Structure formats: structure tokens, C-alpha cells
Amino acid sequence: MLNKGIKFLIENKLVAVLMLVLFVGWGTINAPFNWNTGFLPSNPVAVDAIPDIGENQQIVFTKWDGRSPQDIEDQITYPLTTSLLGIPGVKTIRSSSMFGFSSIYIIFEEDIEFYWSRSRILEKLNSLPSGLLPEGVNPALGPDATGLGQIFWYTLEGRDTDGNVTGGWDLHELRSIQDYYVKYALSAASGVSEVASIGGYVQEYQIDVNPELMRQYNIGLNQVVKAVKESNKDIGAQTLEINKVEYLVRGLGYVKSITDIENSVVTSEDYISIKDIAKVSLGPAARRGLLDKEGAEVVGAAVVARYGANPLEVINNVKDKIKELSAGLPSKVLSDGRTSQVTIVPFYDRTELIQETLGTLNEALTLEILITILVIIIMVFNLRASVLISGLLPVAVLMVFIAMKIFGVDANIVALSGIAIAIGTMVDVGIILSENIIRHLDEDDRKLPINTIVYNATAEVSGAIVTAVMTTIISFIPVFTMIGAEGKLFRPLAFTKTFALTASIIIALFLIPPFAAFLFKS
Length: 522
Known about the structure:
52% of the residues lie in helices and 20% in strands. By secondary structure, it is of the alpha+beta class.
């Protein structure tokens, strides 16, 4: 059956040419090196600098402000942990109780699909018995990302038109811009799971009550809280018909300024309002951390990529969004006459690391191929045979990219190293076949047609070539059986090496013979 396929392609060289064009074009489309051909679309394999060897885990986060770690542990972490134990596919659960919040890490078996596990957790959280958790406490599922998902950090800074730092913006102003403008815009970028704001001050309305005045008017703190809550709402009523026109009746009461809170009535007796017993102001919310950049406190955020997304593509999408919204960021004129524009400044960008990794591997593969071609020309000392053998390498590498895209193997420094390791074996296949074709040509002395000579030479060694390469592929089976972090680290290398060796067999047995018959016919 193998020899029949070889004979068919030798006799139908157009099919072989079409196969070569297909492999080269498809491989160029899926190549991770960002080649711009100008006419071919680009659909590269997912690219990252290093493999993600983290656990298959999900995080359930619960806030309960102002409570001690022991209270959090007893009333939130323990009840939630015991309820989540029954989820199918769970390997282990780890929990952490801190001041004001609880984090539960649910680690699933490796074969459990990522989003399926999230669905099971949400089902469990929605079916928790009433009274299990304190009133007002709502557990939340963490973002659909892994520990390697933080791909881009940035800060918001005031800068002039030349890019020089000007300042002039308070931390609470920058945090408000981040929370209500930048965050929403970047969250809309394709592939982004979360934009986590860091640093600065979250602005809030603050009511500082005067205990003496409250005692004087005989008002309790609960009455103040109730007055503020009830004064910050809109009320919808029925409709009112006047002169055959229907009017909607509404009560507008949302708080829009400090004055609205100050005028909120606490008690109708003596008409006591908030301003009579307290001071209302805008101020920063309590915080337990900050973001430092070169010794200065700044406001910024971390962009987290969604699970399974292409990190390089997500970073490019984020940068495109930043270009779109930069023109709309606020600016102000400082006292010295300079204009200070809020600017998004990259703080950590994995693009450089990814490009360095791809550049190193691209250079290594290119040099390996060039050196191999040089050695082949010198050792084989036959230009036509050298062209056949040398052409095998780049086409086989492009076929590996096709297989990586189909099987979902990400391109990183470990995965692409498998191609570099396999180059020696790939060259051997081409050398064996080409040398045998040359030997048959020398022995034949032009008695048989060129197609017959090439077919006889190929059929003679085809079984040996397949056996030799399959021996190498089979020797990598133990790597495919690895689990955990080791499996995630080395399985991509085994995949790419297997893809490369398989591609070399396909090219050597099905593409080299028809082209050899064409090149050696004269």
C-alpha cells in the first residue's frame, strides 16, 4: 500500500506539486514567527515564552469585610470547603483565610475540562443551603485564567506631549479614571479575562457622625444608616392619565452629590437631616496595599489573558485598545502652564520575552538548516541531491506548525526545541533515500525509465526508513505518559518531535521521489 502511493505520486507529479504548495502555504499561515506574506492570511499557533505547568484549578473568592481570619475560617472557609468537596473530578482543595476575605483553591484532575469544572462549581454555589453563610456574603468564582495569565501590566501617569512625566494627578483621580474608563475599555479586548486594578485610592462618600449631636437628638447609628440607604433610590409608580395622555409617575432619588446626602432626613421629628449630626465628604476607601514603581506610588492594573487564548495575540489586542482610548483620556493644564495628559504606560509586557524566545528559536532553526544544507552539499557532492535533501527541512518544519495548530500544541521554547532536536533524524531520512536513488541511477546506465528507477530505489528502502523513524517515535511513548507539571513541560516537546519525524517520512517517501524523477531525468 505504501509503495502504491509512492508509485502514484511519481507518475502524477502535478499531485505532488499541489501537495507541496498546500503544505508550504498552510504552514506559512500557521507559523508563529509573524511572517507577513502580503497575500496569505495569518492564523498562527498560540505563542508563549514558557509552557504553563500550573495545576488545573479554580478559585472561589469570598469577601467579608472587617472580620478576623478565625471568623472567616469558621463561618466561610470551612462550610464552603466541605460543600465543594462533592464536585466530580476534584483532586484536592486548599483554602486560605485572611483578614476580610477567604480564598479556596479547587484543584481538578488533569483530564477535567477547564470550563466544565467552572460550570460544576457554579452549580454547587447556586445550590448552597440557606443559612450556610452569613447574611450578605456572596462567594465569587475567580477569572477563567491560569497562574501564567498575567501578560500585561500598566500604570496611569500624567505626561506631556513629549512623553515626559509631569504629574499633577491625585491618586484617587487616576484610580477613578482606571476603574470607570480604562478598565472597561480593555476588558472588551478579545481574549482578556480580567483587568485587575491596583494602587491608588478608591473614592467613596464618607459620613463622619458626631456622637454628641446624636446623643443630643436621641438618634441611633442604625437610623443614620437607614436614612442614607432609603434616600438613595428611585421609585417607580403607576401611570397617570391627563387629557387622554398617559404619564409615567417616578420618584427620582439617587444620590449625585454630597449635598444630596447632607439633606437626607434622619427623622421627621424636629426635621433632623444628616448635615445636622454628621460631616459628609469625598474620601479614600480603606486599603491594605499599594503599587510602587521606582519608589513612587502609582495607579495601574494587570491584564489577565483568558484560558486557552493566544497570549501574543491578546497582548496585541490590548495594545490596539490602548491606542483607541488614549486620545479620550483626560488632561489638565498645570500651574506652570504645562499640559498633563493621562497616559497608559506599560509596566510589564510579555511581548518582549515571547519575541526573544521566538527569535532565538527562529535563529537556531535557520542556522541548523543552513549548516545542514552546507554539510549535505559538501558530503553528498551532488547539487540535485542536495536540493532534494535540503528542501525537506523547511517544508517539514512548516508541516509541524500545521500539526501544532490542529492538535492545540502551543509554541514555546520547550515545544519548538523538539523541532531542533529532530532535524538530525530528518536529514538522515533524506540522505538515505537520495543516496539510494543515485546508486540505482549509476548502476542502471539509462536502460530503464527514470520513473521506474526512482520507484525501485524508493521501494527498496521505504520499509527500512519507516521502521527506523517509528523506532525513534515509539521511544518517546514514555514521555507522553507523564502527568502533572512534568507532563505539561515535556509532552509538547515529544509532540513536536513526533510531528517533525512524521512530516519527514511523508516528504521523503511521497514528495522527494516525484521531484527526484523530475530532477534526475536528464
